[in-house]
Amino acid sequence: MINLFNYIKFILATFFATQVFSKVPEVRTEIREENGEKINYMFIDGVKVHEADPEKVTFPPVVEPKPYKVQAGKPPQSAIFLFDGTESLMSNWTAMNGSPTKWKFEDGALVAVPRSGSIRSKQEFGSCRLYLEFATPAPSKGTGQASGNSGVFLMGKYEIQVLNSFGGNANSTYPDGQCGALYGRAKPMVNASRAPGQWQTYDITFTRPLFDEQGKVIRRAKFRVVHNGHLIHDDVELTGGTGWAGPHAVRPYKVHSDKGPLSLQNHGNPVRYRNIWVVDMEKKKAAGSTKQALKALFFTGGCCHDYGQQKNIIIEGINARVPTKWEVFHEMDEKKSKAFLNQTGWADSFDYIVYDHCYAHEKDVAFIESVTAVHEAGKPALALHCAMHSYHWNVPVKEGEIKAWPKMLGASSKGHGPKKSITVNIVKENSGHAVIKDLPDGWRTPEGELYNVQEIYPGTTVLAYGDNGNTTRPLEPQACIWVNQHGKGRIFSTTIGHHNSTVSTKEYLDLLGNAVRWVTKQ
Length: 522
Hints:
Elements: H1 4-22, E1 27-34, E2 37-44, E3 47-48, E4 80-83, E5 93-95, E6 104-106, E7 109-111, E8 119-125, E9 128-135, E10 150-154, E11 158-162, E12 200-207, E13 210-211, E14 217-219, E15 222-227, E16 230-237, E17 260-264, E18 272-280, H2 283-288, E19 294-302, H3 307-321, E20 324-330, H4 334-341, E21 352-358, H5 365-376, E22 381-384, H6 404-409, E23 411-419, E24 423-426, E25 443-444, E26 449-456, E27 461-467, E28 478-486, E29 489-494, H7 500-503, H8 506-519
Helix pairs in contact: 3-8
């Protein structure tokens, strides 16, 4: 016979446990004016972000790290080694701008070099299991955030703090910023830190967030983290991002792509890393999918640009984001390129076309119209940089008519400013567009030449304007990224992309990857 009293206790315990574990932390913000400045304060469940007062926040209890087990750090067969203690795998990492890393290889470890910047993995991941080992420098220097500071960023965005939180440093900083914290969002359940110089382990299971078409979060990022053998985060859902947004605030979620790099932060301390491997939790799903890679034509050639190198950079960059089988047509002779596009059915076997060419002298109207008709019938395309100057400069046109090639692109461009970096400003009302979602507002290209865009045609959606200042021409901001619906075909265009230093950036390649998804309706 069931004991009624115990049964009621069980039901009540289950109910309250459910309430506790399903509870979403309450986040509120307020603006305070201090010393004439407006400061953003964020509170999570009533506790101020980066609160360090022990009377207002509890610090994680210190526990003895569990013994280091070599077996626990051995990767499964499905793992991808990002760093295995050999110098050759330094090649898996770059500086954040894609240039070679200045971190050093020393005694089987990847070591942060002060003032050398953070690093990122070349390979990108979404939901994954990440294992790595790290050691804060010994002897230790400084206290709080100044001692052994680094960070591990999943997708380059969501940080698990690395810090010297051992011994006297255990409570020397705010608990949501100590070692093992999901920075600014959640403190670890326990402090399992080892002494400076000793190797420590993170075993992280990360589930990426999901966003709907309007950029609203429909699934939060989730972390399960084991630090030195102790569970410190048990499927914790982030209420937002972890990026610094002031002394007492972190950033909210911002829509991003499905994959991102693993980033290791350089905070001025020579923190060491080794044995870094990842299990891609989405790889099996992709392998089991019946969906095949897209097939595309990369059409390039003409004057004035390093098309030989750029085609390789762009093809590799797009393929890393949207798996694509490529056919390349690279021809400096404009007549031979025309012959290729004059072939019957030249585009039939491709899912999309990338135009990255510079043929400004063509004036055969019938030929140009035959090319644009392919896209009007539904073939998607990306038009890059000097493709905007091709196929219309010498084409005659009657008053009131629009030339075929600019009509397809959605805009007309002729001429450009000097070679100078461009500041790319996103059009506010279009900031949620799928193409532009990963591009930082105000991004400055390493190099550039700002194109003059004389006309934007009805139906074209401008996503960003480029600005090279008010001292060099063009003096006013110019449309530099836009999309157009040409008949049944979606067309993406950008005037950015003259220099290899720009097209090789993560920002540019993310833009192109998102453009491919948009034009092909992925």
